[in-house]
């Protein structure tokens, strides 16, 4: 038995069909990479026109739930992680809200001299030192973000790698320094991954990615400048305009 579409409802038939297909995907009835019924089969199953089916499928493709293989049919796409940019956020907290298990691998942790760009971003004096912390961020053990964070050494002298492993970067700033990050400025651009980035993110060189630059504040004090490379096929950002 298949759910019946109701022509007497104010909701269009294609919207009703779209919801049914989406429910099948979200419930796991149609798992990731499963081939879904053809347009003709969907017409027969739900007694609707080919135009109605095509409109529903096109919407779901645009929304990232389906993909098409030429000559083979339409398949369920692995959903992207969606980050809402309407408020301050931390990666780990947001990944948990999405129903995934976050984890982090620290690839590098060192005190070093700051480059001119890092000095400018953090508003530091020439010759200032910073912590440079490179981390791989994962969701359900799948790498999605490669990032390097720079923090002024002058305000974070007691920073320890083990604390970041245990509490996360922002959690460590709160627990060990009493510094509460609460504001950030971010900018994005589309890029192609280089070989090193692709290796860490289980991708191919020149695969599409987002490059995010983030300046984080604790009230009015700059506490972090971060550069992130984000897998374009795994993560998406949503902006709410009011």
Give a brief description.
The chain is of the alpha+beta class and 242 residues long. It contains 8 helices and 10 strands.
Key words describing this protein structure:
single chain, alpha+beta, Arc Repressor Mutant, subunit A, Chorismate lyase, six-stranded antiparallel sheet, 29% helix, elongated
How is this structure best described in words?
It contains 8 helices and 10 strands. It is an alpha+beta fold and 242 residues long. It folds into 2 domains: 13-76, Arc Repressor Mutant, subunit A (Orthogonal Bundle), CATH 1.10.10.10; 81-238, Chorismate lyase (3-Layer(aba) Sandwich). The strands form 3 sheets. Strands 4-5-6-9-8-7 form a 6-stranded antiparallel beta sheet. β5 and β6 form a beta hairpin. α1 crosses α3 (50-62), α2 packs across α3 (50-62) and α6 packs across α7 (169-177). The chain is elongated, with a radius of gyration of 23 Å.
Helix content: 25-40%
The total count of strands amounts to 10
User: Quick one: biggest sheet?
Assistant: 6 strands, antiparallel
Structural class: alpha+beta
Tally of separate helices: 8
CATH topology of the largest domain: Chorismate lyase
Q: Mean of residue pLDDT?
A: 86
Order of helices and strands: HHHEEEHEHEEHHEHEEE
The spatial strand order of the largest sheet comes to 4-5-6-9-8-7
Our estimate of the beta-strand percent is: 25-35%
Tally of individual domains: 2
C-alpha termini separation: 43 Å
Q: State the name of the first-level CATH class of the largest domain.
A: Alpha Beta
Identify low-pLDDT runs: none
CATH architecture of the largest domain: 3-Layer(aba) Sandwich
* Dominant shape: elongated
- CATH H-tier superfamily of the largest domain: Chorismate lyase-like
Q: What Rg, in angstroms, do the CA atoms define?
A: 23 Å
């Amino acid at each position: 038995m298949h759910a019946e579409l109701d022509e007497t409802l104010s909701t269009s038939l294609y919207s009703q069909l779209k919801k049914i297909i989406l429910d099948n995907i979200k419930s796991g009835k149609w798992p990731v990479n499963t081939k879904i019924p053809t347009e003709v089969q969907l017409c027969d199953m739900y007694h609707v026109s080919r135009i109605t089916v095509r409109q529903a499928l096109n919407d779901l493709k645009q929304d990232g739930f389906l993909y098409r293989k030429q000559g083979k049919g339409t398949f369920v796409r692995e959903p992207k992680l969606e980050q809402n940019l309407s408020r301050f956020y931390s990666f780990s907290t947001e990944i948990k809200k999405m129903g995934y298990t976050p984890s982090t691998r620290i690839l590098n942790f060192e005190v070093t001299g700051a480059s001119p760009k890092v000095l400018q971003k953090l508003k530091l004096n020439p010759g200032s030192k910073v912590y440079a912390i490179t981390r791989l961020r994962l969701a359900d053990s799948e790498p999605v973000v490669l990032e390097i964070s720079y923090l002024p050494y002058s305000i974070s002298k007691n920073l320890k790698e083990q604390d970041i492993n245990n509490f996360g970067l922002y959690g460590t700033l709160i627990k060990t320094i009493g510094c509460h990050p609460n504001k950030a400025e971010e900018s994005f651009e589309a890029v192609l991954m280089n070989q090193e980035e692709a290796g860490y993110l289980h991708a191919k060189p020149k695969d599409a990615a987002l490059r995010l630059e983030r300046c984080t504040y604790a009230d009015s004090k700059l506490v972090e400048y971060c550069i992130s490379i984000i897998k374009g096929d795994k993560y998406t950002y949503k902006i709410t305009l009011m």
